[in-house]
């Protein structure tokens, strides 16, 4: 049995949360080795698809499979459960089903998607986006990390052939239905007093890079009136994000990089990344436009320039209501709730029948070490996932 402590083992690995590269890099590859060993130990046959996603098959691969899984990578400083809970629970659900003598009557797989957080290359759900064609191979391959290492180089170093990257019709045809179990990133289930819930929708959300250019100079020798300081304009963008995010919208600047980044140096440029989300496309776009207008005004007043580049975007996802409600029914009528967090399930939902199960997070916190799920709730999640998978295979 994969003990739920493995979540702590895999998810809470200090290298994982404290590591900011992940995608096809050392720590993610070690986590994938762990998964391969755990899946193989269960008699599952593990293969890696052309885009770096891992598939552990219970029986022969085939079209119309029941597929479950999630991701193992993390955001920098992330918690132990975002991703690993879905992977460990999938392996444990296989244990539960096997223990009751269940043998899948249709193809069945556990999947681990690559680079879900986009922590290394900046595009979330890179593995599932490549699989579905949501990102063009050439656009993905030239993405680079903070050291200038491209996706193509990272994949090659991980033993993958970058020339094969791209939409994978075979892998997609094999997915008959996909169910992702995930720790809830919020307090919805806490407030509802429920251990498990099903997902109703995902906010529209995306990432935009603001590059502010000014004039690098000496911190001491340059009079304030003589400055063209991009940090001032960048600071005004951060405040504009807060002001624009009204009526349910969310806007975050979690990453800001001055160049060159010396304490006694007025930066020549500052790059910052905006994460904006709202209940629909129009609202999200309106928030970004308002922030971009504020950025242009701030740059002009500071004698700087600013360029805004959309790096990834996904419209609102509404999960199939019939599937959602049928799974809720299998579980005795667990509540359906929306999420502000993106998931590989959100990418697949546009292509195959897709659902999500959420497990209660008593802190409601995510993308931080305080993210949590109690062992009893994790166990309830495994039981729920096993029941749902058994129903879907029927
Ligand atoms: O950023 C997100 O919403 C997800 O956790 N990748
Ligand atoms: Mn996440
Ligand atoms: Mn996640
Ligand atoms: Mn000096």
Automatic annotation (TrEMBL):
Signal peptide: none annotated. This is N-carbamoyl-L-amino-acid hydrolase. InterPro entries: Amidase_Cbmase (IPR010158), Bact_exopeptidase_dim_dom (IPR036264), Peptidase_M20 (IPR002933). Gene3D superfamilies: 3.30.70.360, Zn peptidases (3.40.630.10). The lineage of its organism: Bacteria, Bacillati, Actinomycetota, Actinomycetes, Pseudonocardiales. GO terms for molecular function: hydrolase activity. Belongs to the peptidase M20 family. It comes from Actinokineospora diospyrosa. Keywords: Hydrolase.
